[in-house]
Amino acid sequence: MEQSDWRNSVLTSPLMKIMADNLNRSASEMDPETSPLYRAVISHMDADRTAIDIGSGVGRFAIPLALAGVKVTAVEPSDEMRRHLLASIEKEGLSSSINVIPSLWPVQQDLHAEVSFASFVIQFSRDPIEFVRAMERSTSRRCVLSVHVDQPIGFLKDVWQAFRPSETAPTMLTFSDLYPMLMKEGIMADVTIIREDRPSRTMMDPDKMINLLADLLVIKDEPNEMQRLKKLLMAKKEAGLQQHSMRTAIISWQP
Ligand SMILES: C[S@@+](CC[C@H](N)C(=O)[O-])C[C@H]1O[C@@H](n2cnc3c(N)ncnc32)[C@H](O)[C@@H]1O
C-alpha cells in the first residue's frame, strides 16, 4: 500500500463523515479562546484582522475567529465539511465575515491575509513544502501549523502486520517529519508542544473504522477476515483508551 493511496482516500466521504463528527464534537467541547492555536492566530492580528483558515473543516476556528471580528477566508475541499461549515455560517449570521473557497491548498487565486493557519491539514498534502511556501506567499505576519506529535494512525501498524505483513503500514506526516523539512528550507519556526490527556479520537471507533479499513485491505467479501479485523480493532480500542495522551505541536513563524 503506497502512502499516496491512503491520501487519495482521505477526501472520500466515509472518512470525512467520521472526521466531521469528531470535529463537531470537539468544537462543542472546546473553548476556542483558550485553545493555543486560536490564541496564536489572534495574537498576530494587525489592523486588517484577516486570516486564511486552510482546511477549515467544520469551522472549529473560522467561526469563533469571525465572531471575534476577524475576516476569515476558509479553504475547504470536502463537500461534507463545507456542508457543516456553511450551516454554522448561516446560523451565526457570518456570511459577510467568512469567505469559503471550495478547494485544496494551494489555491489558484491570489489570497492575502495577516495570518494563515492550517490545523491538522498538512499531513494530507502531497507536497508539504509547496503547501508551506504557498502559505508564506499569502501571509504578511504569521504562518501557523498544528500537527500531531504522536502518530495518530499508529494502530494501523498491527493491522498491516496481521493482514499485509509484507507491506509498510500507512503513516501520517507528524512533527518529527515536518520540522526537519522546514529547517532544510531555512524556516526556523517557534514550537509549542501541547499534551491533551485523552485518547486519540481520530480513528479509534471500530464500528466506524471497519468498513473503511476493509476497503483499503480489500477484504469486504471475506467474512472470516472481516471478523479477524473486527477483533483486532476492538483490542486496539481497549489499548488506545488506556493510552491517555496525544501531543500536538503548534509551529509558527514569520514568513
Ligand atoms: C482533520 S481535519 C481538520 C479541520 C480543521 N482544520 C480543524 O482543526 O478543525 C482536516 C481537513 O483538511 C482538509 N484538507 C485535506 N487536504 C487538504 C488540502 N490539501 N488543502 C486544504 N484542505 C485540505 C480536509 O478536507 C479536512 O477538512
Description of the molecule:
With 255 residues, the chain is α/β, with parallel strands linked by helices. It has a single domain, classed as Rossmann fold. It has ten helices and seven strands. Strands 3-2-1-4-5-7-6 form a seven-stranded mixed sheet. Helix 2 packs parallel to helix 5 and helix 9 packs across helix 10. It is globular and about 60 Å long. The model has no long low-confidence stretch (mean pLDDT 88). Bound molecules: S-adenosylmethionine. S-adenosylmethionine binds next to helix 2.
Labels describing this entry:
alpha/beta; 18% strand; binds S-adenosylmethionine
Classified in CATH, the superfamily is Vaccinia Virus protein VP39
Number of helices: 10
CATH C-level label: Alpha Beta
Strand content: 15-25%
- Count of domains: 1
Q: What number is the mean pLDDT?
A: 88
The value of Rg in angstroms is 19 Å
Structural class: alpha/beta
The rough form would be described as globular
Adjacency order of strands in the biggest sheet = 3-2-1-4-5-7-6
Identify every distinct bound molecule in the structure, by name, code or SMILES: S-adenosylmethionine
Main beta-sheet annotation: 7 strands, mixed
Q: State the separation between the terminal residues, measured CA to CA.
A: 36 Å
Write down the secondary-structure element order: HHHEHEHEEHEHHEHHE
CATH architecture: 3-Layer(aba) Sandwich
Summarize the structure.
The chain is an alpha/beta fold. Helix content is 45%, strand content 18%. It has a seven-stranded mixed β-sheet.
